[in-house]
Task: structure prediction
Amino acid sequence: MITIRNYYTETADLKQTDLPLTLWKGHQFVGKVTQNGSSWDAYHSSDSIKKTIDLFLDKLNEFLSKKGGGKAKSKTQSSQTKKTTPKTARTTKPKVKRRTPTSPKPKKKTARELTYEKAEKVETVSLELKLIKRFIMMHGKVKSQNQIRLFINALQKAIIEKRIRKTSPYAKEINKIQDYLLGLHGQFKNDADILKIDIAESVRGKYLTLVGKQAELHSVKLIKSYINLQGKTVTNLKAKRLFNRIALAINTNKLTKKDRYWDEIESIMGTLKSFVKKNIEGGMLVVSSKELNGLQGIVLGCVVCDKNLNGINSTPRNTIMSSTDIVNLDFEKLGFTGKWKNLIGDPSNGFTAMIFGKPKMGKSYLAVDFGGYLARNHGTVLYVAREEGIDDTLQQKLKDKNVAHPDLYVSDYLPEDLSNYDFVFLDSVNKLGLTPDDLELLKLKYPNTSFVYIFQTTKQGNFRGGNEFQHDVDVVIEVPEKGKAIQFGRFNQGGEINIFSNN
Result:
């Protein structure tokens, strides 16, 4: 029986072909969590990881016992046959009819695979279908009034900006969704209320059929993953994983030579194979500008050409584009208002900011106030109060600023999973022991999440840490004296506010 104690000795010779895809993914997950056996700390410290791995081990042992049991049974039967067959001189071997070898029965395709086959393959799914899918995914979930309001705002903004038009084939469905959401919004009595969403089965069935009309090309998904590795320090294992993902897609016929970007995929596989061979531990993955621009053209082409598509936050690094294409890009903004627009400007989703200043000058007051504004107007916020912890001081700040809200969460540690949050405050980066590389990894893992970093400073007022911290953020806010905040980032140079004023 395989346990965490003997896992790596028992699975040392395990190959991808030995396991079903779900179990192989479980095997990869164990390798990632334990850093290939070097540490099981995450398993022992996280209940969710422990439960996931324990369930995987149960399924793995069950699969291997069935697989091994079949072989053992056949051996036993053959040995019993030999012992019970009387040996006589006249014993002759019975004639055995030779069976014509038959090809294995094709594996039955899943509903998801069948839906993908029927769908129109596109580089980017239309905005209307994305919103319809978002609506369907709400079924059975518990939502707050603010979450419903944000969805309504996203719909209305897309309609006002004419990214969804009256002539759209899905305009009728979008209007029905908007009416449904407005009705839900009216059911809330106060901000603290929550509602469980229940969408009729007939509606879900109809909308699921619509969502299935378009699907993102497998090749485009893989090209995006490859572009994200460009110019970064990549481990040998990470490059292998992407190569294996591509190989698996080809072996299972999800990706064939008929794909319009087959040549690009072959080139990517060649680059990854060469990288893995030359870099035993890992290294910097560098792609020629010509190749990179071609791949980015595939991913960005639809954004430039299709005005009905959703806006973008930013273009990938190392991009060369025509100025005429750049002026046609639709950069989506968060829509800041009031004092926060005066201080920061209007950033895009996924921005990064840093706040620094001497102790007792108001850094945390400013951060708590900002977090409350974001929770009320723009999404779900996590405030990691590592410096102070969850105590009466933090309680007083929440009261003073009147920012307590169902979508503003507070923690005294950095959770492993941040996917449920649109904005994350780290107070402070120094107390959390995070390096510039750690922050970069968080941004890579959660590209659509905005991060606000709070820094301690020296007696001279300079933030603790290297200049890399300041160079890697979009917004820099200094608190040079008590109650005063000045912003000198990229969106609104020189903006300032009074921290302790509630106006």
About this structure: Residues 381 and 408 are 5 Å apart (CA to CA). The two ends are 65 Å apart (CA to CA). The chain has four domains: 7-72, 118-215, 221-328, 338-498. The chain is about 50% helix and 10% strand.
